[in-house]
Amino acid sequence: MISKDTIEKFREQPTPFYYYDLDVLRITCENLRKESEKYGYKVHYAVKANANPVILKIISSYGFGADCVSWNEIDRAINTGFKPSEIVFAGVGKSDREIESAIDANIFCFNCESIPEMEVIDAIAAKRNKTAVIALRINPYIDALTHKYITTGIEESKFGINIGDLDEVTAKLATLRNLRLIGIHFHVGSQITRMNVFSSLCSRINELQDWFEARNFKLDIINAGGGLGIDYDHPDTPVPFDDYSKLINDLITLRPGQTIHIEPGRALTGQCGSLISRVLYVKKGANKTFAIIDAGMTDLIRPALYQAYHKIENLTSSGALEHYDVVGPICESSDTFGKYIELPETSRGDLIAIRSAGAYGEAMASRYNLRDLPRSFFSDKLEP
Ligand SMILES: *Cc1c(COP(=O)(O)O)cnc(C)c1O
Q1: Is 304 in the pocket of ligand 1 (CB under 6 A)?
Q2: Nearest CA to ligand 1 atom 3
Q3: Is 0.85 topped by the overall pTM?
Q4: Using CA positions, which residue lies closest to atom 8 of ligand 1?
Q5: What gap in Å lies between CA 131 and CA 146, rounded to an integer?
Q6: Which of 187, 239, 302 best tests ligand 1's pocket when mutated (most atoms within 8 Å of CB)?
Q7: Is 73 in the pocket of ligand 1 (CB under 6 A)?
Q8: Per-10-residue mean pLDDT, the chain, length 384
Q9: Buried residues in 28-41 as b, exposed as e (16+ CB within 10 A)
Q10: pLDDT at position 88, please?
Q11: 380 torsion bin: left (phi>0), alpha (psi -120 to 50), beta (else)
Q12: What is the DSSP letter of 251?
């Protein structure tokens, strides 16, 4: 819920901007911390979901580590309070320079996705007389049952090492003297709302644990990745960390000394952010009415890119309900936030909130059409 007082403060602000309710973020972090302490698993926040420094400082203050996919993310994470020793570096295409910087920064672990990548990390570590700690990202062949662009763990996906190649990968690993294998890593996709996807992942993890054990590999870390979805229909609903935590801890069979790691991104930041915009024009179409707002796909690309649903609210009208296509100003037909959306009678100047926009919103903003990047406001500074 965005409070009446906050909406009054919005009236003075130029739009569009991201509004972050930091209490929602803190409660979400606290809930996850409680679960992680209860079960003894370790959390690395996936920085790519939202790399706003204010958000990162709050998340790091809960003692979580960071899951980064570029050197710039690692650098930002270190500058916002994450310890290098709690940063993992993931991604299918790490550049040599990124690997060099990450080794020099003494990060915790590289999540490796291919033999050629392992060879490059080994060579760079050797030059520095260091040992790089790695986990193998394995493609578990599990369909996340989510949008195809955010499914990452099926056979045709570019991510991870194929299970059939594990013999070759582990044979190669034995020859790479500056790498140390610490664990296995999985990430099946994003916005996963069906818990049976995670159950299938846990079964696959158990099979692979047997595979590694049979070959005398000692793994310390079982990293189940991120992907836990949020309820876009109900932006004020807490994220079900309890069900998820119980499930993975019940279903993954750990060996002595092993720790589960998880990497939530969206689940931590999604519900704390809203994109706030103003209605520029209400325009009659041939058979519908458009509410044209001053935020576009450059501010929030998820609807255009993934056909994603976000709840849209008119914060300043209490008129009779009507239907609108809520669209942005960008010269692309996909620049549509919602079709046939029920809103109170909407007119020029009304404030519109696009909810659950705290993850993959601001982080994916672009300057297409040479638009300005969206600014961000925080509940802590807005409240008196
Ligand atoms: C994107 C990503 C995550 C986070 O995904 P969410 O769906 O935001 O939880 C975690 N791990 C890896 C490797 C990723 O690429």
Answers
A1: no
A2: 226
A3: yes
A4: 265
A5: 38
A6: 187
A7: no
A8: 94 96 98 98 98 98 98 98 98 97 98 97 98 97 77 76 95 97 96 95 97 96 97 95 97 97 98 98 96 98 96 98 98 94 98 98 97 96 60
A9: bbebbeebbeeeeb
A10: 98
A11: alpha
A12: H
What is the CA angle 131-133-139, rounded to 5? 140
Atom of ligand 1 nearest to the CA of 360: 8
**Residue 95 alpha carbon to ligand 1 centre in Å:** 19
88 lines ligand 1 (CB under 6 A): no
List of residues 6+ apart from 384 with CB closer than 8 A: none
d(CA 11, CA 113): 48
Q: Is 227 in the pocket of ligand 1 (CB under 6 A)?
A: yes
Our answer on whether the CB atom of 6 is closer than 6 Å to any ligand 1 atom is no
Which tokens belong to 364? Answer: 């994916």
Atom of ligand 1 nearest to the CA of 227: 7
- Pocket flag, ligand 1, residue 263 (CB < 6 Å): yes
Q: How far is the CA of 241 from the centre of ligand 1 (A)?
A: 15
Query: Do residues 296 and 370 make contact, with C-beta atoms less than 8 angstroms apart?
Result: no
Distance 67 CA to ligand 1 centre (A): 8
What is each CA distance from 342 to 1, 237, 302, in whole angstroms?
A: 18, 21, 20
Residue 116 phi/psi, 5-degree rounding, is -55, -35
Burial of 250 (0-12, 13-18, 19+ CB in 10 A): exposed
Nearest to 363 by CA among 139, 45, 81, 32: 45
Residue 260 and residue 13 in contact, taking contact as beta carbons nearer than 8 Å: no
